[in-house]
Write the structure tokens for this entry.
Amino acid sequence: MIRNFNDHASNERTFLAWVRTATTIVGFGLAAGRLGGAVPPLWTEATLFAAGVLLVLVAFLRMVWLRRRIER
């Protein structure tokens, strides 16, 4: 049996929610760029893509930090 299983499962669910949010942000950026007109603004796509990548990175670091706190 895993110690603090509920806490670990909650931590993982939260991480996956952050990843879903980041995927949505990236997808929205790509869709907005494609639907924006003849010449889509590249900065919109790049900004939303960077925001999605940054969000996944922050979520991963938060998950690892909380995993260590749970184990203490």
